Every structure is written in C-alpha cells, then in structure tokens.
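Researcher: Going back to the complex we discussed earlier. I've cleaned up the inputs and rechecked each line, so this should be the final set. Can you rerun the prediction on the complete assembly and write out the structure?
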Amino acid sequence: MTRIGVYVCHCGLNIAGTVDVEKVAEYAKSLPNVVVAKHYTYMCSDPGQRMIQDDIKTRKLDRVVIATCSPRMHEETFRKAVGEAGLNPYLSEIVNLREHVSWPHTHEPEKATEKAKALVRMGVARVRLSEPLKKRKVSVEKNVLVVGGGIAGIQASLDLANAGFKVWLVEKAPSIGGRMAQLDKTFPTLDCSACILTPKMVDVAKHPNVTLLTNSEVVGVKGFVGNFEASILKKPRYVDESRCVGCELCTEVCPVKVPNRFNEKLDQTRAISIYSPHAVPKIAAVNSGYCLRLKTRKDVCGKCLEACEAKAIDFSQKPETIQIRVGGIILAVGSEVFDASKMYEAGYGRFPNVILNMEFERISDASGPTQGKILSPKTGQPPKNMVFIQCIGSRDKRFHEYCCRVGCMVSLKQAILAREKLGEDVNIYVCFNDLRSFGKGYEEFYRRARDMGINFVAGIPSDIRMAADGSLYFDVFERGTNKLLEMHADLVVLANGLVPSEDIKKINELFHASRSADGFLLEAHPKLRPLECSTAGIFLAGTCQGPKDVPDTVAQASGAAAKAMDLLSSGEIELEPLKAIVEKDLCSGCRVCESLCPFLAIEMKNEKEDDAEKIRAEVIEAMCQGCGLCSAACPTGAIKIQQYGNKQVLAQVDAALTETDAKGGN
Amino acid sequence: MSLVDSMSMAKPNFQARERILAKLHGRELLNCFQCMKCTSGCTALKLLELKPHEIEKLVNLSLIDELVSSDIIWTCVTCLKCVQRCPQMASPYHVIMVLRNLAVEREAKVPEAFMKAVSLVLESGLAETAQKITTRTMKVCERESLKLPKIGSPRESFQAVFLKALEEK
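Model: Rerun complete. Updated structure for the full complex:
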C-alpha cells in the first residue's frame, strides 16, 4: 500500500497570502493513499526539510508531494532532502502553487485555493505511479575548448590553464585580442588598453597548458557534456609559423593595398601583413582575397618571397582540419558594433565627419592611422566643435530595443580624451537620452567629464545635416531648458552600440546554443545560471551573451572558467535520469524522432531480427535532455520520457477532470 | 559657432561663462546633472516661475546674455534651500547672485524694489523699513509697546564707507 505525504508551503505570504494553505492541506488528507498532509511557512528552510525527512522515516512514507514554488527553483533541494531520508529522490513530486497559482491569481483567492487543490490532487495521482530512478555517471575529458580570443576568451583560458586544465583557444582572426585590442583607453581609469591587454595575450599564448589556434574556426561539434568532439578548421596563413620572425619586410615590399580591418578600415595595410602592432602571435598572414598570386593562381608578383630572409612564406599551405576531444566548451565569440549607416538620419556613411565610436578609438590610439592625433576625416584638421550622440541603434525599437550598456561610458571616455588632447578651446557636447554611469567608479568618471567642462545636452537630434561649407549642424530640443538649440559641429561621434555578430547564427547551429529575443546567446537562467548555456557543458563569456563592458566581460569569463572547472574537476559527471527510452518492439524506424531531436540525441541503428534487417531508434543517453519532443511525435508511442509516460500523465489528466476526490467525499 | 538658440537666435558667450565660474570660486556649477531638485523645491517657482535648473543649464551652455537681462534672475527669494539640498553642490542661488551682479555691471534694468532697497540702506542702514511687529499670539503692536529700542540713524560716515565698499566689490 502506497503511503503518500503532502507538504504545502506558505512561501511567507507569497502563497499563503492568496491560497488558503490550511484548507489545501486539509483537502489533501482526503485523497487516496495520503497518510499525512502538513503546511509550513518555508518548506525549503532547514526545519521544513527536516519535517519531510522525519515523516518519511517515522510514518514510513514512500511518496512525497511538495506544493511550493516552481520546480526550477527548488526541485533539486527537495530531491536531495528526500534522498537523504532514504527515499528514492525521484519518488517526490513538486506542485507549483506560486508561479502557477498565487502570483497569477492574486485577486481571486477562493478560485486560487480551488486550483491549488486540483493541482495537489493531480500531483498525488501522478506521484503514485512514479518510478524510482538512478542518476548515471559518465567520465569526462579534463580539457576545454574556448571559442574566441578576445579578452573574455583570453581570461577564461588563463584561469583554466592556471588551474591545470588543458585549453584549446580558437580565434578566427590572425591575432588574439579582439575588440579590446582596438581600444585606446579603458574607462573609468583611462588605463591604456594595450598596456593591460598585451601582457595577457602573451601569457595565454606562452602558457604550457594552452594550445592557441589563430586564423581558425570551429566547423563541427559532436558529442555531449564531458565528451565533445570538435573539428577545427585551420585556415592557411601562407606563412610558416615556425619560421616567421615578424620583421615585416614582406609588408614593406607588397604592392597590394588592403583596407586595414584593425584600424576600422580608416587606412590601408598590405596583402601580406601582421594584423596589429601588438599582434599575438606576431606572425604575418596573407590576405587570400587580395594577394595577386593567390587571386590569379599564377606564378606572379612574388616580391614577398624575395624579401623574406627567414624563407617563411609558403604559398603551398592548405587548410587543415584538427579533431579534438574536450569536456567543456566556453563560447566567447563576442559581438559586433551597430552599422550606423542603417540609421539614415544619423548621417553615417553620408557625411565623412560623422564617425563611429570604434573609429574614434583608432583615431585616438597612438598606433592608429593618425598616430593618436584627433583629426576630422573630412578636413584633416583637429575639430573645434565636437558632438557625441548617444543611443545610435540602441534603445530604438526599429533596430535594437536594448540598452547597449557601454555607449554612455564610451562617450564620456572619448569626450575626456578629446578634451585632454584638443585643449580647453574646443567645445565638446554630449547629446543623451539618459546618462547611465552605473558601474564602480563610473559616476565619479561622469563627474570628472563635467568638471572638465564637457557639456551635456539632454535630447537627441532628429537628423544630422551638412552645411554648404561641409560642416555639420542639427536641431536638438534640450529638455532641461525647454529650448530648441541649433548645434554646429565639425566632428560628430556616434555612440553606436553592440549587436549580435553575424557569426552567432553559425554558433547557434553548431553548438545548439539558443538565442534570446535580442539575438544574443541565451543563458540557462537570467539570475541563477547566467554563465551556462541551456545545453549542458557549454558556458558563455563576454558580449556574445549580451552587451557588456570590459570589467563585466572579464568577471563573466572568470565565472565561466570556474563553472567549467566545477563540471570537469572530478573527472566524472552525474546525468539526470529523466531521459527518453525506446520500447524496441514498438519502434517502426520511421525516423520522426531523429529529425526532431534538437540535441541530436537519437541514432538510427540497424538490427537483425528474424533474418530481416530492422532499423530502430536508439537514444544516446548522455545527450538527451529529456525535452519530450520525440515522445510527443512518435506515431507508435514507442519512445517515452521516463516519469512522463502515458501512465503518469494520463493519471494526472484523470485527476484534473475529477471534480471531487476519489473517496467520494468533498 | 557651436550652437544657437533657435527661437531667439542667441549665441553662447563663452567668456561670460568663464567670468561667472571665476566669480563663483569653484566649478561645481559644471557638475549640475539636471535632477531638477532645486526647481522642485524652489520657493519662487509657484508665484514667480523661477526654474533654477534652467538657469544652471543655460549658464553651462553659455547662453548667458539673455539671462542677464531677464527679470527671472531677480525673482529668487534667497531661501537657500537649493544651496543646502543640491546633490552636486552646484547651488543655483550663488549662480543667480553672480548673474545679478553681472546685470548691474552691464547696467541692465534692475527691478525697482531692489533699487529702493539700496537707497533705503543708504538712508537708514537697513534693508527694510522698520515694520510693526506681530507677536506669537498674532498681536500686532508697535516696537515701543514691547520696550524695544528705537531705530536710530546710521553714523554720518556710513554712506561714504558703504559706497566705497560697493565700488571695491
């Protein structure tokens, strides 16, 4: 005879404020097999858990229903408590009285109580048929693939490598460093970006536990948490990495000019060049889209071959694919900046003296196209009137609804740099919506900008126009003074925000990493699991998860590295037992489940039976996340999710449709 | 030119702003971030439409000339709430006082009441005429009935000293 205990949680007043918990507990006692029903202020607290454990022992309970908050919140907590009391943890059932009852029905307490009773009735009906399940253990590879060599990927790799894990760091550009390497200074301390980043770039490249693959991309991922198999495509540099000494003699003789990506295409480099002045590795690479020899596939030019004293240039290099096995993956693929030419009224692309904040970084950087002199691209002269305009492409429903989280601070920093470099006589204005200086030391930084006489105009111009002399002007309604101001500028810097990169679609498909509505990669839980992807074993770091500044990126990267260590350190992991299982005799081999499974957890296998070949579905247990898509779609009912079979679900449905309890009373 | 007020075509006067900052003995005015707390509590707002945050912003944008010749700077009743409560210590009151000084300097029109006050000081040494006294029990009475001393006249040298002090300022 099954003996069930029902425990109704008040959750302070979260549940008890709406639902009559006493009535619900009283009602539960009338349900079949229920031998004890109690209510308590906080079931999740230590005395609450102990109450359940004591009852399991003294009243010999073999099933438990806990009517409390969402199972996403405390299912694990209660399973653990039940397990500690000697009962199989999967013989407990959570009924959600908070998110499903008290919160949405605050204004109808009586109906809410009825709904709570019905849900408890359903929970009892279901738990009666629950089966004991066991977690399985699988061994894991103790190494990690880090995708993306920006500051997030570098930090995560260093943390992991220092902790003794082997790391594969894959970067698609010829050098690591990412966006941060392009910045001149960093807010709010005005540290030179290169000075704080370059040592980390060198450290990660030299670390004995790190294998650095630049000019490379992940092209395939198979396997599951703890046992991923990744294929990495190493694109040819056409330069022998072991020979090149980084002398740049080849660049000096190369006749083909190429827009310089590192300098935001503000100047030109050559078809063979080193990516940036502080590139790591400092090895030249040939741009195959521009090099005459590679473009024409003929034996032409060859000037670099003659110039290279180290004989490092090798046009016979072919792409290589490297297969690796890793236990965990950290995605640190970064983001892109908003293409401001999409916003016609902002004038970018139409007026040369309207520039983006990334372009300003390169102009302000000593290694940039102007050697750090702030010059208007139109006149080549230092500007007299500069205006920064905020929220370009961000907080704008036409483009991106979210706040870019860096634009305000970037503009403050750039305005301060401009003031320092151009002097007191230059007028500097910032047109803003809300000035968001939320981080540590940021408000003080904003004050510093005001102290330096930078003017803040509360309002965003409708459009930027060009006067006959090539200078810019626009109207802006200033809400502090209620005045329409006509502003004139010879350099306008747009604070265009961060947007999901083009590659994120590829990443989404390759790694089964879901995306949120804003297009960035989605974390497993916005508050409680912000560093993990919903696919087990994959972690997120940096701006691929959402726009963020350098301090937040570094913090998240270290967090993701710690999460990966947590997963892999013991050498084995426990897997949830709620998986799909196939009843072989019923499977017709129709492949519907295989095509639907979002985690590629179903394999079709040939089997011999009565001298005939039969094809049947098989679940790769470690990859199955128990989502149930296959079970819902299977035409023969051969595939089901443990604990969520027809038996349990139909019992629940029956209970939902029974208005009074099974004992006949009410 | 960096900006123009599109309604009045007024242009910024950067030197005037530098002068104001110099007279303020501190650059806190620049720190105003337009929380409008000063205007929320301004004693002169409801009757006289003084909006101190606007004055702060206009000075910061160097749109000063119109402000100096306007009546609005004379409406401040010097309650000093804004000085005490400004989160950035940018105290609009002090800015308004500097603007008044500028107005006198530029011989802009000064409201009659202020000129009267000056002549009263010259004559009697007091900013206001001796009024009848209202006691705590709301009784209105003469100074004498409360045995308060008579108000005397200033010393003969007062006028000369006062005028000299004004000039030095």
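Model: Worth noting: The first strand of chain A starts at residue 4 and ends at 9.
Researcher: Good, that matches what I expected from the previous run.
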